């Protein structure tokens, strides 16, 4: 079958101009990628609240459950947020699959090209593909867990999952994949759309700086959950509850949940 026949039969002959859809899909992929990176920055700081102590992480968790606003904890609120992130994640992954090597020959050509060129940006792209592939599985498993069991988030519940349920190797792989993928993604996005117009070298340094910072923060956080989980093994399943809260937070807690002992007038 000749090429012209193929073009006529697939209805491309009527196309007077090139489709804008690939560019639109690229913009959507960049947009969803940027939103996921911004989400992850917030996520890493919220999860890292354990470094400030169990009460800090307990407070952040309860805050997301609406505990200080709706008179009690509503873990389903967290599931709603997770569902939104999951949709964004699936859309981003779907759009990114357009860029994956479509078959083994393409993959082999890509690898040979990267080896021959030794061009850093091409090598970074291959790592984007590898870490993206890993996130298909690792991030989906994590998101599913957070979607279905949001009530199992907390200083002891998360530490028991990380240590006693043996999830720390999973989180280590997820941390490495998401930080490498997010860092390269942000760099390629800034290069591709020439935003915010900074030099390639500056963007590269910024990329490695951000990746290094969030990897370090993530490793310290994971270490903290492992340490608490190790110490808490004998009480596996017990939930953390702060003995008391700062007065300003106590006032926002549901009535009667945290009552300070009333000091007797002139008590000795
Ligand atoms: C709204 C959605 C999400 C929620 C509610 C959430 C919640 C959490 C929580 C509570 C932890 C602490 C450990 C545990 O309890 O098991 C955690 C850890 C982690 N999450 Fe998420 N997560 C979400 C989405 C994601 C996504 C999309 C990714 C990556 C693609 C991700 C990557 C990680 C990593 C790497 C850790 C380990 C933390 C560390 O090592 O510092 N999370 N997440």
Question: Care to describe what's here?
Answer:
By secondary structure, the chain is mainly alpha-helical. It has one domain (about 20-240): 3 helical TM bundles of succinate and fumarate reductases (Up-down Bundle), CATH 1.20.1300.10. About 65% of the residues lie in helices and about 0% in strands. It has 10 helices and no strands. The chain has helices spanning about 5-10, 20-45, 55-65, 75-95, 105-115, 120-150, 155-160, 170-190, 200-230, 245-250. Helix 2 runs antiparallel to helix 4 (about 75-95), helix 2 (about 20-45) crosses helix 8 (about 170-190) and helix 6 packs across helix 8 (about 170-190). The relative contact order is 0.12. It binds protoporphyrin IX containing FE. Protoporphyrin IX containing FE binds near residues 47 and 221.
